[in-house]
Structures are given as structure tokens and as C-alpha cells.
Design goal:
The chain has 245 residues and is mostly helical. The protein has helices at 2-18, 39-48, 53-61, 67-80, 84-96, 101-109, 117-131, 139-148, 151-181, 191-216, 220-244.
């Protein structure tokens, strides 16, 4: 299975390093710069979300917030954080939730012409929140949100952004471990945190794939191969972009 192969590949890289057969410091990441998170930060952030469990239930289970738009917002945050795994998952999830390929393409390009004003304000808002690490946003953008959304809807949008940001940084920590094994460690990430969060990732990933498999009526292995192909494609595009610089 793809997940098993990933574990074996990681184990093999560790054995090579232990035997002194270091690979060249070339990496498809070309210097790891994605936002990660420590294990302790993850625990504290999850604990901070505890008061919002009821709101999470209403957003994700009762679907009081449009599920298609929820997935679009999560995809926007994933793209901003450059989390390859989350971007693929929420692209698939958005399709399952009824978002058209045309709208997803417009989202990829961040084309405001493809969205009504109400949606575009929320898209701009979640991007601003993540860029500012949820500390502040421009007053004009905040006023635009208050004009288009109720206070409860704004809380829902902010919660969606926070949950996705945590997921992205956890996924990026798995990528940071892979980058470290290739000889390019992230400057602001510790190996112990990468090991812990990579272990969580390898447990959660199959469960997410299984959910998507059942929701889309697609074979589990087909989805796993699609995820692997997507991440490899992203690696290739990143390497090509760096060579052109």
C-alpha cells in the first residue's frame, strides 16, 4: 500500500544516514520554508479550540455552513500555506460537496471575477487572517465581512480558517521530516516535533482517504495513487520554478 511504502522509504533513508551513506543535499524542496508547528503548539492550539466544539459540530456535522463553500475556504488556506496533502484532500472534498470544476479552477487562480462579492470577501478574509497569524486584519476588510455576514457566520468562517491552518502546519511538518531526510532541514523545526507529527499524519492520512473513498465511491488505492501523483507533480513544479529563478 502507498502508506506502507512511504514508511519503508522513510526507514530506508534513516538506515542510509546511520551507515554514513549521506545523500547529496539536493532536495525537491530546495530549502524548506513552509510553515510548520511543534507538537506542544499543536496540543495548545487544539485545546484552545475546545470551547468551539459545538460550533465545529454545527459546521462539519450538521452542515449549517454550506459544505461546498467550507471546502473552498479550506482549499484557499491550504494553498496559502503550501500544504500539498491538504490541497489535494480539500480539492477532492470540494468536488464531492458539489463544487464545479470551473469554480475550483477560478479558485486556483484566485480570480475574483469567478465569485460573487459575498464569497470573495470571505476568501479574502481567511487569507488575511492566516497571513497575519490571526492577530488582525485590515479594518475595511473586517467591515466588509460584517456587512456581508452575521456575527455567527463570521465565527464559523474564522473557525474554518483556524482548523485548516492547524491541519496545514501539521502536514507541512511531515514534509519537513522528508526534507530533513534529504539533507535540507527546516530552520525553525525540530526533529522530535517532526517525528511526532509525522506519526500522527501517517495514522490520519489513511482514515481521510477511506472517508473520501466511501464518499466518492472510488477505490481506496486509486485515491492513494492520485494523492501521490499530485504531490509528485507539485514537487516537480516547485523544482522547475526554482531552476528558472
Amino acid at each position: 500500500m502507498p502508506i506502507v511504502r512511504a514508511i519503508k522509504s522513510t526507514a530506508g533513508a534513516l538506515r542510509d544516514k546511520a551507515k554514513g551513506r549521506r545523500k547529496p543535499p539536493a532536495s525537491p524542496f530546495g530549502g524548506f520554508k513552509k510553515r510548520t508547528i511543534s507538537a506542544s503548539q499543536m496540543v495548545r492550539s487544539l485545546a484552545a479550540l475546545a470551547p468551539d466544539l459545538g460550533l465545529m459540530y454545527r459546521v462539519w456535522i450538521r452542515e449549517e455552513f454550506d459544505p461546498g463553500f467550507r471546502e473552498e475556504l479550506m482549499l484557499v488556506v491550504s494553498k496559502l500555506n503550501a500544504c500539498r496533502f491538504c490541497s489535494w484532500v480539500h480539492h477532492e472534498w470540494a468536488q464531492i460537496s458539489g463544487v464545479s470544476d470551473e469554480e475550483l479552477a477560478q479558485l486556483e487562480q484566485l480570480d475574483p471575477k469567478g465569485f460573487d462579492r459575498r464569497k470573495w470577501v470571505a476568501i479574502s478574509y481567511v487569507r488575511a487572517l492566516v497571513k497575519e497569524d490571526f492577530r488582525r486584519v485590515q479594518p475595511a476588510l473586517r467591515r466588509a465581512m460584517q456587512h456581508k455576514y452575521s456575527p455567527r457566520e463570521i465565527r464559523q468562517v474564522e473557525l474554518i480558517a483556524r482548523v485548516m491552518d492547524l491541519g496545514n502546519r501539521g502536514g507541512n511538518s511531515f514534509d519537513a521530516m522528508r526534507s530533513r531526510l534529504r539533507g535540507v532541514p527546516a530552520a525553525d523545526s525540530r526533529v522530535v516535533d517532526e517525528v511526532i507529527l509525522s506519526s500522527v499524519f501517517l495514522v490520519v492520512a489513511p482514515a481521510v482517504l477511506l472517508y473520501l473513498s466511501r464518499a466518492s465511491n472510488r477505490p481506496f488505492l486509486d485515491l492513494a495513487r492520485s494523492l501521490i501523483d499530485y504531490t509528485r507533480q507539485q514537487d516537480g513544479q516547485g523544482a522547475a520554478a526554482r531552476k528558472s529563478q
